[in-house]
Amino acid sequence: MRPLALSVGDPAGVGPTVAVEVVARRRDECFRVFGDATWLASTLEARGILPVPRARAPGDVELVDVVRWPAAVIAARAPTPEGGRAQLAALDAAIDDVQAGRSRALVTGPTSKEAIVSGGAAFVGQTERLAERVGLGAADVTMLFLGPRLRVGLVTTHLAVRDAAEVLAPPLVRRTVAHLVEATRRLGIERPRIRVTGLNPHAGEGGLFGREEIEAIAPGLRDLGDLEAEVHGPIPAETAFRAAAEGRADGVVAMIHDQATIASKLLDWGCAVNVTWGLPFIRTSVDHGVAYDAAAAGLVSSEGMLAAVELARCLSAP
Asked: Smallest Cα–Cα separation from 129: which of 168, 164, 84, 161?
C-alpha cells in the first residue's frame, strides 16, 4: 500500500508530538513523516517503533529528513524564523512527494504563519501554498471543514474582512458550492442539502445592509441543476448554521473565514478536519493551531490529527 505523507508543522508547537502519537496509535496505516528524522526517530523508538527505509505495509513508518530542529527552536514554544523555515520546508517536501505519487494523500500538522513569514517567505496559509505548489490559483481550491455535525465550505479564506467583501464574485460562490457538494457526495450523501449564507446581517435585507447578496452571491447560485444537490441561499448565516446543527442541512457555504470557523469549532471542536478540495490529491489537516501553550504545558491532544488521518484514509485509495 502507498503511505500517507505527514508534514508535522511547527517544531515549537504540538505538531511533532501529535504526529508521533498518531503514528503510534494507527498501526493499521503506513506513513512517510516529513521533518527532523533524528528527533522523530528518537521519539518513536522511545515508543517501541523502529522506522523503516521504505514504508509499504501497515505499521511501517518512514522518516524523510528535511531539516534539523535546533533544541532552542523547540524550546522557544513561540514563532521563530528557524522554525518557520523548517515547517515550510517540510510542507513543501511533503507536497512534492504526493504530487510525485510516492504517497497517496497528504496530512498536515499546524503551521505558524508568523513564524514562516519571519523566516523570509511570503505565506498566508497552507491552503494557498498547496494551490501554488501544484500550479493552481487560490481561487481554484476550497477550504472545507468536515465534521460530524457540520460540513462547511469557505468562499474566501485568509483575507481581511473588507478585502473579502471586495473579492466576492459569482464564480467563487459557485466553485465553493460545487466543491462542498463533491465532498459530501464522496462521504456518502447522494443529494446533499446545502445552505448558502449571506455576507451581511439578515443576508442584506434586500439591499438595505449591502448588495453582495444581490450582486455576487445570488448570481453564483443560478443554474446549479448539474450538481444534483438541494441548494438554498443566500440566507442569514445564523439560519444556515442552525439548520446544519439541527440536521436539516448537510453542508453550509460561508462567505468569510470566521463565519465558518466559529461555527465549526463550536459544533465540532476536536473532530472537524480541514480539507483542501480541488487539488489533484487529497489533503487533510487538523482544525487547530500550533498551540505553543499546550506544547509547553505538555497538555497535547492528538484527536484532531487522528481525525485528519482517518478522513484521509476514507477519501483516498490505498
From this structure: 84
Peptide bond into 234 cis (omega under 30): yes
Residue 86: strand, helix, or coil:
helix
Q: How confident is the model over 226-269, as pLDDT tens digits? A: 899 999 999 999 999 999 999 999 999 999 999 999 999 999 98
Name the helix (H) or strand (E) containing 165.
helix 161-167
Residue ranges of domains in the chain, CATH in brackets: 1-139+278-318 (3.40.718.10), 142-277 (3.40.718.10)
DSSP string, 101-146: TSSSEEEE----HHHHHHTT---S-HHHHHHHHTT--GGG-EEEEE
Average pLDDT, the chain: 95
138's grid cell? 487560490
Residue 276's pLDDT band, with cuts at 50, 70 and 90, is: very high
- Cis-peptide into 11, omega within 30 deg: no
Query: End-to-end distance of the chain based on CA atoms, in angstroms?
Result: 5
DSSP-derived secondary structure letter, 47:
T
CA distance 92 to 129: 8
Handedness of CA 215, 194, 173, 181 (dihedral sign): negative
Radius of gyration of the chain (CA): 20
Residue 270, pLDDT > 80, answer yes
Q: Are 178 and 277 in contact (CB under 8 A)?
A: no
What grid cell was written down for 121? 517567505
Helix (H, G, I), strand (E, B) or coil at 32: strand
- How far is it, in rounded angstroms, from Cα 181 to Cα 110? 26
**52-66: burial string, b at 16+ Cβ within 10 Å, e else:** eeebeeeebbbbbbb
pTM (2 decimals)? 0.92
The answer to whether the beta carbons of residues 129 and 70 sit under 8 Å apart is: no
Q: Which three cell numbers stand for residue 51?
A: 522506522
Segment holding 232, helix H or strand E: strand 230-235
How do residues 282-301 score in pLDDT, each as one tens digit?
Answer: 999 998 999 999 999 999 89
